[in-house]
Amino acid sequence: MIALIQTIVLALDIYWWIIIASAIFSWLYAFNVVNSRNQFVDSVSNMLFRLTEPALRPIRRFLPDLGGIDISPIILLLILFFLRQFLLTTVAPLVV
């Protein structure tokens, strides 16, 4: 059972970094640092969007409009941090 918890924690950690990469990439894309017409850049953008949008969309529905500032990745990172800490401090000691 501890292996399952460690695998879930690892998946949460990987998704954490995917969300950070998506946020950084969106800034680079918005400020024209990366070439938006490049096929590789477009495929990376599409991959990051498809990985993060299903989790970010429900959060964006509840957040008020902040005038171009999107804090939904921060909210999602806080949720992931809570889940990770919950698994490590509450669930894992019960299994051992």
Question: Please, could you describe this protein's structure?
Answer:
This protein has one domain. The protein is mostly helical and about 100 residues long. It is elongated and about 50 Å long. The model has no long low-confidence stretch (mean pLDDT about 95). It has 3 helices and no strands.
Main features:
single chain; mainly alpha; elongated; 3 helices; 0% strand; 96 residues
- Our count of domains comes out at 1
How far apart, in Å, are the first and last alpha carbons? 8 Å
Note the beta-strand portion. Answer: under 5%
Order of helices and strands: HHH
In short:
The chain has 96 residues and is mostly helical.
Q: What's the structural blueprint in terms of helices and strands?
A:
Elements: H1 2-30, H2 39-62, H3 72-95
Helix pairs in contact: 1-2, 1-3, 2-3
